[in-house]
Amino acid sequence: MRFFQFAFAFLICPCFFAQGSESCDSLAELSLLSPGPFEFTSIDESDNIRNGPDYSGAHIYYPTNSTGILSSLVLCPGFMNFESTLQNWGPFLSAHGIVTMTIGPNYLTDSPAQRKDALLDAVITLKAEQTRLGSPLFNILDTNQVAVGGFSMGGGGAQLAAASDPSIKAVIALYPFLLNAMEEDLDHSSPLLVISGELDFIAAPSLHANIHYAATPESTPKQRYEVNNAGHDPLIGPYAGGGEVGAKVLCWLQAFLREDHCYCPPLLNTPSTASDFTHNLVCANLFPEGCTDASACNFNPTAAVDDGSCESESCDCPADLNGDNAITVADVLLALSEFGCLSNCTADIDSNGYVNVTDILELLSMFGADC
């Protein structure tokens, strides 16, 4: 095993200072840390990790002094690029608590489709560390929180991997290359971050990144950040755009891989080094607020962020309209009457002309039936 000393003065998501939510205030302190709060090291195939058939060589970077369960990312390089061209992402992300696996292609000329296979094969290897006796990641990996990414053809392969495996939690497409990308190729729901270079003449944004963004479903959370005056260079990695590329990637993974709502608002801010920037993110929709306490009367199972509205277990159940301490048929009928069930029945929520079980269940949910 090797320990990496990694010094880099970097402000992570400085826009955290502008957030109003008290629950996110601690991120202001995190933004001052350089490069991150964790020490890290790496293991490779000499440390008995699985040697997958669809890629060649791998390193897994991980934090050594973190607590709790860890999420992870697998990265694949581009055409004629070795694994080493992406290895600066390993220290950067693992110092912030994200396990990062870098792989090499079997052949430097592998296509995006072959790199897709390499990424999916590497995901198998990474998940196996959760159960491999002797692994430093034994029993501390969240195998449901795995993202994929890559540079150039590796970025195109990451898009294809997400379309192939719906369990992929997020995609990081760095200066992606995938010719003639069609909507059917990129039909996935994994939140997509596309980084491109304004002066990239190998993977020109107009032929690749812009098309990738447009072809990914509008229902998928997505963002495209074109870096001013940037070309096609994997080595600069997280330091591109004066460090704003690394900040954006980290925020994306924290928000969508680790599901931390505090990192969503910073994603909306346009980087100072962007020559073009667009997204479809609405944080209130992605991380809806409500009562998240399942024991509360007003528990909202769709809420991702607790808004402090939870009512105690002793509160009156709002669906118990007739006050008998139970949700009965009488309550349902009373709810329907309050909605004015006439010839054009306003309780017909799904508008099929009838008041059916679906409508009644929807009405009950509106009245807090989960209490």
Average residue pLDDT: 85
> Strand order within the widest sheet?
1-2-3-5-4-6-7-8-9-10
The residue fraction in helices comes out at: 10-25%
Contiguous uncertain segments of 5+ residues: 1-12, 14-22, 341-345
Which term fits the overall shape?
globular
Distance between the termini: 52 Å
**What string, H for helix and E for strand, traces the elements in order?**
EHEEEHEHEHEEHEHHEHEEHH
Determine the structural class based on helices, strands and strand pairing. Answer: alpha/beta
Total count of helical runs of at least 4 residues: 10
The overall strand count is 12
What characterizes the major β-sheet?
A: 10 strands, mixed
Task: Note the beta-strand portion.
Answer: 15-25%
- Rounded to an integer in angstroms, the radius of gyration calculated over CA atoms is 24 Å
Annotate the secondary structure layout.
Layout: E1 2-3, H1 27-30, E2 40-44, E3 58-63, E4 70-76, H2 89-94, E5 99-103, H3 112-128, E6 141-151, H4 153-164, E7 171-174, E8 192-197, H5 209-215, E9 222-227, H6 244-257, H7 264-267, E10 274-279, H8 283-286, E11 289-290, E12 305-306, H9 329-338, H10 357-366
Parallel strand pairs: 4-5, 4-6, 6-7, 7-8, 8-9, 11-12
Antiparallel strand pairs: 1-2, 2-3, 3-5, 9-10
Helix pairs in contact: 3-4
